[in-house]
Amino acid sequence: MPRSVLFGAFAILAMAACGGSSPVAPTPTPAPSPSPTPAATARYRVTFDATWSAQTHPTDSPGNAHFSGLIGGTHRSTVKFWEEGALASEGIQLMAERGRQTPLDLEVGAAAVAGHAQYVLAGSDLPRSPGTVSHEFDVSRDYPLVTLVTMVAPSPDWFVGVSGLNLIENGSWVGEKVVTLHAYDAGTDSGVTFSSADIKTSPPQPIHGITTGPLVVGGSVPPLGMFTLRRIL
Questions:
Q1: 117-145: per-residue pLDDT in tens?
Q2: How deeply is 168 buried, as exposed, middle or buried, from its count of CB atoms within 10 A (0-12, 13-18, 19+)?
Q3: Smallest Cα–Cα separation from 215: which of 60, 16, 1, 30?
């Protein structure tokens, strides 16, 4: 038998004796699955369930508790119409102090012209709290964030709402999202009761969550209601 054949046979036997094995080709890593892409558009119904009443917030409770017309818009993350810790725009100020939908609607419209927003959302008011009001709106994949606010009325400059709520999660449109609504102070009026006379805050203070005043119950402020956003198309 040729020497080279004998050497190869001895090498194979030696590997077997030592527990060796022939090299095994690595298992190829499967390609990652593509991320889901949401439909280009969706339609939602937002339902505002107001719970504010003399039973939930008994201190100095007004006899005509209500909320102003819903106002906001759909937009990208390149714009914010309000956020805690920032100063209120004129639109947020007049919404929180007077319950006006203008000029916040104009601010959303200007953002739309600049390519940062798409639709203005303007819904009905809620003339009596507790109560419920709904509004339907369209939203697109390129502008999936929702900002929506309403004035706590009567009040100096208090409001509830959401800022930049994303309706796309994990690559899909959200089927339903429930948001508990806590009270914010717009930082533009220094009144301390529901019926306080206008007291302009100078200089204006940043928007902040309310922790003092007649809305406080037992050291905290119970929520004033909730938004339920449900996809309907």
A1: 999 999 999 999 999 999 999 999 999 99
A2: middle
A3: 60
